[in-house]
Amino acid sequence: MGKNQHFEFVSGIDWQPLHFPFSLTVTIFLSTLTPKFYVALTGTSSLISGLIFIFEWWYFRKYGTSFIEQVSVSHLRPLIGGAENTNSPQATFSATSGENETSRQSLSECKVWRNPLNLFRGAEYSRYTWVTGKEPLTYYDMNLSAQDHQTFFTCETDSVRPSDAVMQKAWRERNPQARIKAAYQALELNNDCATAYVLLAEEEATTIVDAEKYFKQALKAGETIYRKSQHCSSQSPQHEAQFRRDTNVLVYVKRRLAMCARKLGRIKEAVKMMRDLMKEFPLLSVLNIHENLLESLLELQAYADVQAVLAKYDDISLPKSAAICYTAALLKARAVSDRFSPETASRRGLSTAEINAVEAIHRAVEFNPHVPKYLLEMKSLILPPEHILKRGDSEAVAYAFFHLQHWKRIEGALNLLHCTWEGTFRMIPYPLEKGHLFYPYPSCTETADRELLPTFHDVSVYPQKELPFFIHFTAGLCSFTAMLALLTHQFPELMVIFAKAVSIDSTYLMYLYDMQKPSLEHYKLIQNNGHLKT
Fold first, then answer.
1. What is the pLDDT of residues 26-45, one digit of tens each?
2. What is the pLDDT of residue 456?
3. Which residue of 43, 130, 155, 157 is 20 to 30 Å from 507, comparing CA positions?
4. Secondary element (H or E) of residue 503
5. Is the pLDDT of residue 532 over 80?
């Protein structure tokens, strides 16, 4: 060995001769490309990335999630990372229990309620369709109403009575004209068929006056049937079921008559009818007749009576609603709103009455954060749906549709709301995880509200979702490729030189790596075998 040689070659190592790297071939190929190729390449890349960005944005707006992220989590991650072993009985039981618990919680949070102040289809919803050409009710909402009608107005013994048998089929019909035709057939069989008059009042009457006439006929027939079934209710389970059905019909008719009186301006008469109905059937509080009463009392400006109703129904043990919470806030705001000034309050601080009003507003906003945007007319109102989701956008639309006028009537109430409502969100920075006065805000409201509200309405979402990473990524990619395409189109020769320079630099680095790779591998082998000599 030579004197200056520092390493001894290890026998048995297969030395490979250095070869000319393939990267130089790539460089030669790139050098032959024309400027038109680079223009076409960057333009095509910009177009493809733009289409991906548009699709990703549309998918997020419609479904609230990133398409790329969803595909990655649902399909690619199981293939790459594999699935965990959950075959043990304990793991299976835990997973099943967790899914059942989540399902039960989701069902309780997303329970849909019938709108206590729902409009009349023939006299109000249909007139809107005639004027605008838009359908204010969704198929899902109308299907829920059909289920309600079958629950309220039918029973097992309907098949015995021909008129009730016809009406039983009528409530299942999807076509409004077929339902109306069936109602007339039922009246031909029995002129005292109360449910037939109810259907005609709801769907055929084109004015509130006509609807009231039908309901009065339904009330006359319903009271007669109710008295008869009341005497026979204890004879058999079938008679008891018929009595419950007749009770439902009578309560429904009286309530709608009270609502007709309210719409026709006979407000005191409507209040009396509602109070009598609540006294006669106290166990039917689940129908939320007190919300109809609250709205009528606010129209009369009988605020002391409103406070008395709230004292009974705004209880910790009773379910809350936007009508309860926001009416309580309105009464507290009424006491201070006429002299409230943000500048004065910032100098001297809030008085006790003002603190109570602000806390009541924060409580109402925490229960339903969508309402203020409608009361402050930051969002346009639509006709309320026949069913609402408590704490959701559908409930906010229904509340604001009927109560906006009451807030406007009290001087300064909307100004106080405008100055204070956003302060609620500082107390609940993570509303889906932890609430302040109520349970955490349910995460399922957006999906349910999209089913209840028409497509032309922009559904309010709370809390606002942050844009997914892949939307930012595709937006950046689209902008970058568009900039490259523009520069390549404007300065083709310069961009070709730049592209070739980048390719040559990258090729040179790859060449150096290929040159050093055999030496590094031999050095590691010598070091591992312990034959390194100095």
1. 555 555 656 666 667 667 77
2. 92
3. 43
4. helix 492-529
5. no
Q: Phi first, then psi: give them for residue 350, nearest 5 degrees.
A: -90, 140
- Compute how many other C-beta atoms are within 10 angstroms of the C-beta atom of residue 37: 15
Cβ(327)–Cβ(402) below 8 Å:
no
Average pLDDT for 501-510: 59
| Distant-in-sequence, close-in-space partners of 478: CB < 8 Å, separation ≥ 6 | 46, 49, 50, 52, 53
Six-digit token string for 511: 């060449």
Res 32: pLDDT: 61
Closest by CA position to 141, among listed 459, 400, 389, 462:
389
What is the reported pLDDT for 466?
Answer: 55
Average pLDDT of the chain?
A: 80
Structure tokens at 514: 């290929």
| C-alpha to C-alpha distances, 389 to 312, 320, 435, 449, nearest whole angstrom | 23, 12, 18, 7
Burial class (CB in 10 A: 0-12, 13-18, 19+), 431: buried
Alpha-carbon distance of 221 to 199, in angstroms, equals 14
Question: What is the Cα–Cα distance from 58 to 71, expressed in whole angstroms?
Answer: 16
Task: Say how many Å lie between the first and final Cα of the chain, rounded.
Answer: 13
Torsion of CA 426, 429, 434, 440, to 10 degrees: 80
How is the chain split into domains, by residue range? 23-104+470-529, 314-464
Rg (Cα) of the chain, in Å, rounded? 36
pLDDT in tens, 283-308: 777 789 999 999 999 999 999 999 99
DSSP H stretches of helix in 286-434: 289-300, 303-313, 322-334, 342-348, 352-367, 371-375, 393-409, 413-420, 424-427
CB 328, CB 366: distance < 8 Å? no
**Local confidence band at 426 (pLDDT 50, 70, 90 cut-offs):** confident
Of 49-53, 178-182, 332-336, 373-377, the least confident: 49-53
Give 157-199 as a DSSP string: GGGGSHHHHHHHHHTT-SSHHHHHHHHHHHHHH-TT-HHHHHH
User: Which has the closest alpha carbon to 366: 255, 497, 462?
Assistant: 462
Least confident of 3-7, 349-353, 363-367: 3-7
Please give the distance of CA 468 from its chain centroid, rounded to a whole number: 18
pLDDT, position 69: 66
Q: Residue 388: enclosing H or E segment and its boundaries? A: strand 387-389
For residue 457, the surrounding DSSP H or E stretch is none
- Give the distance, in angstroms, between the CA of residue 41 and the centroid of all CA atoms in the same chain: 42
pLDDT of residue 515: 59
